[in-house]
Amino acid sequence: MLSAGVLAWIGAVFLAAGFVKGVVGMGLPTVAMGLRAVTMPPAQAAALLLIPSLVTNLWQLLTGPSFGRLCKRLWTMMAGVMLGTVAGAGLLTGTHTGAASAGLGAALVLYAILGLAKAGFTTPVRHEALMSPLVGVATGLVTGATGVFVIPAVPYLQSLRLEKEDLIQALGLSFTVSTAALAIGLFRTGALASPSAQLAGSVAALAPALAGMFAGQALRRRMSIETFRKVFFVGLLALGVYLVEDGIL
To answer: Which of 124, 189, 205 is nearest to 159 (CA)?
Structure first.
């Protein structure tokens, strides 16, 4: 049974995590893993993420302007994400997750610096049929090893040069599939030791996560495209630095 102080800390963490997600369309799992600071085991902290992550990603997906068009365009990528995550979910409980997270963070830092320098890349439409499933499988395998959904999915989606709200919705689609696939994979590998208790805690974390997300979305809608682009890459940079530190320490 968690103390009142720990419950208050969990609420504050998920409120902040939801706000970050509302602004840049991602980051809830990474911010919320600050739960480790109260000596909560990583598996328990990860279990708390499942419901808030799934619901906020579904909300982000379904409230965007181009649901049908994005699903039609990205379905092969999503199929790859599902296959790769379920197949690789057992890696999350392995002994090399720290090194994997640090490497993932370093890749994010480099990508964010290039983005802030406006040196990003573009994926031509004619290459999407080949690239989408490959990126999906790679993202799934990385998710299985680290529990983080962003590489290479986020750089790839950003390279498609989608409009601001379309990019946010595409991220919601990718993260929704990744969260569902990770839950299936963790359950299949027995990583969820007491599903009912962990589910109850995850549901309780949902309200502050949604409240933070709504506040963050309101702020994002008032941003110009250029401001959003800068905030997006700064968010990726912060996420990468966190992953490097978390993997090394």
So the answer is: 124
Report pTM: 0.81
Q: Which of 32, 46, 28, 38 is nearest to 2 (CA)?
A: 38
Of 127, 83, 225, 239, the C-alpha closest to 167 is 225
Identity of the residue numbered 22: G
Task: Give tens-digit pLDDT for 166-190.
Answer: 999 999 999 999 888 888 887 776 6
CA-to-CA distance for 28 and 51, rounded, in angstroms? 12
Nearest Cα neighbor of 237 from 102, 105, 104, 101 is: 105
| End-to-end Cα separation, the chain, in angstroms | 28
- Give the separation between CA 84 and CA 194, rounded to whole angstroms: 25
As to burial, measured by CB atoms within 10 angstroms (0-12 exposed, 13-18 middle, 19+ buried), residue 119 is exposed
CB atoms within 10 A of CB 121: 11
Q: What are phi and psi of 193, to 5 degrees?
A: -70, -45
3-state helix, strand and coil shares in percent for the chain, rounded to the nearest 5: 80, 0, 20
Q: Inter-axis angle of helices 225-248 and 97-116, to 10 degrees?
A: 150
Q: Are 146 and 96 in contact (CB under 8 A)?
A: no
Q: Which residues contact 2 (CB under 8 A, 6 or more apart)?
A: 10, 201
Helix (H), strand (E), coil (C) string for 166-205: HHHHHHHHHHHHHHHHHHHHHHHHCCCCCHHHHHHHHHHC
115, 215 Cβ separation under 8 angstroms: no
pLDDT tens-digit profile of 134-158? Answer: 999 999 988 877 777 888 898 899 8
